[in-house]
Design a protein that fits this description.
The protein is an alpha+beta fold. The chain is built from 13 helices and twelve strands. InterPro entries: DNA/RNA_pol_sf, DNA_pol_Y-fam_lit_finger_sf, DNA_pol_Y-fam_little_finger, DNA_polymerase-Y, DNApol_IV, PolY_HhH_motif, Rev_trsase/Diguanyl_cyclase, UmuC.
Length: 366
């Protein structure tokens, strides 16, 4: 592993089954039982599942019908996002007791840079343990953590000892840790990419490491260089306290499949209105409109158009979405529609330089 790139002390904190755990926290009758946060109707989707439910193969994004089939005793609970946000805010306040370099990824996970921290504690591992204990003592929820020299390895490590555990990967352990890792565990390698890697004989980090940069770029495009670097422990992205969104979107899943474009246009009108509200609230505009279509057989189709100017108004968003809807003939009835706006006017403000990174020797106490 090279010695000349920035080494930091990064913690990735990931709450365990967050939505489901909050429901069990607030309702003691649900504790120890298999629960799913989401809708129980035939059109419903599981947003989160308790560990008791996961034993039966219940997973997020699974249809409620399949989840109920896998676990007949499954209890469905309606999501309460305001409550999840409230708890997430409390957790984030605990993070800020240790560092201001906190980058939330979602309501239930965040990166923390504790290279220099408010407690003056040189051990990132002890800080992670203390944070997890404080979350449990003050809120009553369990968290897991990964600790290492960069965001990628910390993210991967946080999943190793879940639930309610943590994993530290020291600099001298990185090569072996990544080489032994199943390729499916690499952050950024999804199901489709993993299957493609399998066909190319890549099953572990060691297999990936043996491939040249040219081979990976040839097979995976611009992502090839990312895979080439991260398997060598190289990931220089800083923890960014004010994460700038790459896109803003809104979508709806329907109770009944839609087969008429007239009904779809009506739904897109509501979605565009919701998207406009979100854009105005964040004072954001964008150039690239993407229409997301999920068919009744769960196949997904996206269509995009980039304009020459920034937009944020409902009328212009809807006009472009309509154009995208009619761009191709629909393949089936539709169960979900979504519109997102990317290529935002915030991206030019984002700084990606590593000039302020802290460089230290490879021998790094964790």
């Amino acid at each position: 592993m090279p010695n000349d790139f920035p080494l930091r002390k990064i913690i990735h904190v990931d709450m365990d089954a967050f939505y489901a755990s909050v429901e069990q926290l607030d309702n003691p009758d649900l504790r120890g039982k298999p629960i799913a946060v989401g809708g129980s109707s035939k059109r419903g989707v599981v947003a989160a599942a308790s560990y008791e439910a996961r034993k039966y193969g219940v997973r997020s994004a699974m249809s409620s019908v399949l989840a109920q089939r896998n676990c007949p005793e499954l209890i469905f609970v309606k999501p309460r996002f305001e409550r999840y946000k409230e708890i997430s805010h409390q957790i984030r306040n605990i993070f800020y007791e240790y560092t201001d370099l906190v980058e939330p990824l979602s309501l239930d996970e965040a990166y923390l840079d504790v290279t220099v921290n408010k407690k003056g504690n040189p051990s990132a591992s002890l800080i992670a343990k203390e944070i997890r204990q404080k979350i449990y003592d003050t809120i009553g929820l369990n968290a897991s953590a990964g600790i290492s020299i960069n965001k990628f390895i910390a993210k991967v490590a946080s999943d190793v000892n879940k639930p309610n555990g943590q994993k530290t990967v020291n600099p001298e352990e990185i090569s072996q840790f990544l080489e032994e890792l199943d390729i499916r565990k690499f952050y950024g390698v999804g199901k489709v990419t993993a299957e493609k890697m399998y066909k190319l004989g890549i099953f572990t980090g060691k297999d990936l490491k043996q491939k040249t940069l040219e081979f990976l770029e040839g097979n995976f495009g611009k992502n090839g260089s990312y895979y080439y670097n991260v398997v060598r422990g190289i990931h220089t992205s800083e923890v960014k306290p004010h994460r700038i969104p790459k896109s803003v979107g809104a979508e709806r899943t329907f109770n009944e499949n839609l087969s008429s474009e007239i009904f779809m246009l009506e739904r897109l009108d509501h979605i565009a209105e919701e998207l406009e509200k979100r854009l105005k609230k964040a004072n954001i505009a964008g150039k690239t409109v993407t229409l997301k279509i999920k068919y009744s057989d769960f196949t997904l189709n996206t269509r995009s158009k980039t304009l020459a100017y920034y937009i944020s108004s409902k009328s212009l968003i809807l006009e472009t979405a309509k154009e995208l809807l009619y761009q191709e003939k629909l393949q089936n009835s539709v169960r979900l529609l979504g519109i997102s706006l990317a290529n935002l006017n915030t991206e030019k403000k984002e700084k990606t330089t590593d000039k302020e990174s802290i460089s230290v020797q490879l021998k790094f106490e964790f």
